[in-house]
Write a structure and sequence with these properties.
The complex is a heterodimer of chains A (about 325) and B (about 325). Chain A has helices at about 45-55, 80-90, 100-105, 110-120, 125-140, 145-150, 160-170, 190-205, 215-220, 240-245, 250-255, 300, 320-329; strands spanning about 5-15, 20-30, 35-40, 65-70, 75, 95, 175-180, 210-215, 225-230, 235-240, 310, 315. Chain A has about 325 residues and is an alpha/beta fold. Chain B is about 75% helix and about 0% strand. Chain B is globular. The chains are: A alpha/beta (about 325), B mainly alpha (about 325).
Chain lengths: ~325, ~325
């Protein structure tokens, strides 16, 4: 059975006056039906760009997908024309953005913003779409949905708005939802609620979910599989449990040890990753993590390590991954 | 909203009083008065007594506070008195011209809006393409070209073209006919000044529409609309345009108020007897009462236009709550 979404060697570059920014530089991953896949990485590693590329939402100019393929239900999304990709957006693949405060249109009612998608994709008339929208608002846990329909986004709190965004992404019953840092802008107390809601709804409706985040806690709890991105590339992939228990890339290891853990003595100091991520306009030969890596060897300078299978469904792009396993174990 | 409107209307009074104080005292700072100008303006023999009698009759030698109270009570009771220069009732003099100026202003505003919003939108959507360059050149030309000069070109063009195609040169009517008496004659006279001023006015509004829309098109919610798979047409019309019209509405409103009394030279070119011409004449004649009345009229128009724009804002943007 082929995967729901298969991304092969995707390259998205931005052509700016200060050079070509290789935001996504040859990534491959897949998402199975109903599965939750996380893409983890720090700011500027290309995780959002890789998500926007799937739906052709890269601002162009300056951005452009310069290579690779994105197959969704065996259809190449990069080969579609403008109208065809618009039929996929919102209908087959829903999207939830980071900033609920600015992602809803301030001058249109919640109701209109929900119904217009259904009217457009499902050919519903206004009355039917409104009924359905109320159902979805109730589903995402919004009280008094009939009244909310007539309200504007500024009447709602951030968490409520993100719930509306989730209802919007779900309302055409898509096969896949891409959530780009869905909880980053929210209050900590709300974050878990929103994630829980997303997880429950996608599971119940059988929708696959891509969660893009820099929060490893989110990954551990909600993702089936994890892709760790660094400098436009995936450097480690595996089941969430494996990545946690046995990280096989120095970057993943660094990420994990920079997060406070409840299962370890409190006195232990957190261990941040030193240095800055590399300038994406001047990526040269060799491993891009090299300047920050504590495990580097000579080979790392001249040759870029490929993403290779090291265990059951576990891949790492590091020359020293075996030593890493022993070093940690 | 209702409360807000009432509050705004009440606020008109202090604003108008401010305008009244300013114009009243500034006018009296100008050396000379209407009597001296009339009697001595020719440079011939000056009869001091005649001037004194004239000043006595017009009441401009009365104490300044008496004059001011007269002016204010007159204004708020709609009794503007007579023109100091012609001696005719001011309401009558202004009434003659107000209709014409208002019509030109409305037609110019319509012209500008009809040109500006579609052109600005196309220009923003097709940013940095040849269409955008053409629209931008067209609007820069509009800003650079004085409307009176464009007016002259229009008249000459009309003469030459009609001569060439119909054998007889045709010119717009010279005398003003109210629109309800003869709409054809009225429109065929006023459409040209409206186009000449509307073009320049549209240039500013086009550029404003373009830049506002470009800004809105980069907003997150437009990206959301795209991610929902909506068609570009709907995204522009429903999601982007309404948000970007706020600054455009401001510009259009201010320009409209300016047109009511600011069209001095264009009126000259098209031989229109409008408020602009009356304004200049009354100032050069030291016609205190007339100038004061005109300034107050323009102030009222400005205030009402602003009020209208503010109400329009609330309609365009539900976040704006007036309470």
């Amino acid at each position: 059975m082929s995967a729901l979404l298969e991304i092969e060697d995707l390259r998205t570059h931005f052509f700016t006056s200060s050079g070509v920014v290789k935001a996504v530089n040859g990534i491959s991953y897949d998402v199975q039906e109903g599965e939750t896949v996380a893409i983890v990485g720090e700011s500027g590693c290309g995780k959002s760009v890789s998500a926007l590329s799937i739906l052709g939402l890269i601002p162009s100019p300056p951005g452009r997908i310069v290579g690779g393929s994105i197959r969704f239900q065996s259809e190449d999304l990069l080969g579609l024309d403008d109208l065809q990709i618009r039929d996929i957006r919102g209908r087959q693949i829903g999207m939830i953005f980071q900033e609920p405060m600015t992602s809803l249109n301030p001058v249109l009612t919640i109701g209109l913003q929900l119904t217009e998608t259904m009217e457009h994709h499902l050919g519903m008339d206004r009355a039917d779409a409104e009924k359905k929208a109320v159902e979805y608002l109730r589903l995402v846990g919004i009280s008094e949905p009939e009244r909310r329909m007539r309200q504007y986004p500024h009447h709602l709190s951030g968490g409520m708005r993100q719930r509306v965004m989730i209802a919007m992404a779900l309302c055409c019953e898509p096969k896949l939802i891409i959530a780009d840092e869905p909880t980053t802008a929210l209050d900590v107390t709300i974050q878990a609620q929103i994630l829980e809601l997303m997880k429950n709804l996608t599971k119940r409706m059988g929708v696959a979910l891509i969660i893009i985040t820099h929060n490893l806690g989110v990954v551990a709890r909600y993702a089936d599989r994890v892709n760790v991105m660094y400098a436009g590339k995936i450097i480690e992939r595996g089941l969430a449990a494996d990545i946690y228990r046995e990280p096989r890339h120095p970057y993943t290891l660094g990420l994990l040890s920079s997060v406070p853990r409840l299962d370890q003595p409190r006195q232990q100091r957190l261990d941040p990753i030193d240095g800055q991520p590399p300038d994406l306009t001047r990526l040269g030969e060799g491993c891009s993590f090299l300047p920050r890596c504590k495990f580097s060897v000579e080979k790392c300078v001249s040759e870029t390590p490929p993403l290779e299978t090291i265990g059951d469904g576990h891949l790492s792009a590091c020359w020293e991954q075996e030593n890493l396993a022993t070093a940690r174990g | 909203m209702y409360k807000y409107t009432i509050k705004r209307i009440l606020l008109m009074f202090p604003t108008l009083l401010g305008a009244a104080v300013l114009v009243f005292f500034m006018l009296r700072l100008i050396p000379g008065d209407v009597c001296e100008l009339r009697m001595a303006g020719t440079g011939m023999y000056v009869d001091k007594e005649a001037i004194a009698t004239c000043q006595q009759n017009l009441g401009i030698n009365a104490p300044i506070y008496v004059q001011f109270i007269d002016f204010i009570t007159g204004f708020f009771t709609f009794d503007l008195g007579n023109s100091m220069w012609t001696g005719k009732p001011i309401l009558h003099e202004i009434g003659l011209r107000f209709e014409l100026s208002l019509q030109v202003a409305i037609m110019a505003t319509l012209t500008a809006t009809i040109i500006a919003i579609p052109l600005g939108t196309i220009s923003a959507i097709k940013q940095d393409t040849w269409i955008d360059y053409i629209v931008r050149s067209f609007s820069i030309a509009g800003i650079a070209m004085p409307s009176f000069w464009l007016g002259i070109l229009i008249i000459l063009g009309l003469l030459i073209m009609t001569q060439k195609f119909f054998g007889n040169p045709w010119m717009p009517p010279i005398h003003y006919t109210p629109i309800w008496e003869d709409p054809v004659a009225n429109i065929s006279q006023l459409i040209w000044p409206a186009v000449a001023t509307g073009y320049r006015y549209s240039a500013v509004a086009t550029r404003m529409t373009r830049s506002a829309l470009l800004e809105v098109l980069r907003e997150d919610y437009v990206r959301t609309a795209r991610a929902k798979g909506l068609l570009e047409k709907l995204i522009i019309n429903r999601h982007a345009l309404k948000n970007s019209l706020l600054p455009v509405a401001t510009i259009i409103g201010l320009e409209f108020a300016f047109l009511m009394g600011g069209l001095v030279v264009t009126e000259q070119v098209f031989n229109l007897n409008g408020l602009g011409k009356l304004f200049v004449e009354s100032v050069t004649n030291h016609d205190y009462t007339m100038t004061q009345s005109l300034v107050m009229l323009v102030a009222v128009v400005f205030i009402l236009t602003n009020l209208f724009i503010d109400i329009l804002y609330a309609w365009l943007d539900p976040r704006i709550r007036y309470s």
